[in-house]
Amino acid sequence: MDENMKLDVRQNYWRSIGLYVRKLYTAFTARRGETAMQHFWQSLESGFKDLK
To answer: How far is CA 8 from CA 21, 24, 39, in A?
Structure first.
């Protein structure tokens, strides 16, 4: 694995984390409740399945 590939993987990793943090933030601000959290965890799970 060369340096460019490592950097690319790291960037994709942080980009996906940023995406989920943003989703979590919007879920909390939009409507605070269990449904928002459930939706967040479902999208988080499906996101990780996509990464595999």
So the answer is: 20, 24, 29
How many other CB atoms are found less than 10 A from the CB of residue 23?
A: 16
In sequence order, what are the residues at sequence separation of 6 or more whose Cβ sits closer than 8 angstroms to the Cβ of residue 43? 20, 23
Number of folded domains that form the chain: 1
Tens of pLDDT, residue by residue over 2-50, are 778 888 888 888 888 988 888 888 877 766 656 666 777 788 788 777 7
51 contacts: CB under 8 Å, gap ≥ 6: 16
Q: What is the rounded distance in angstroms from the CA atom of residue 37 to the CA atom of residue 24?
A: 8
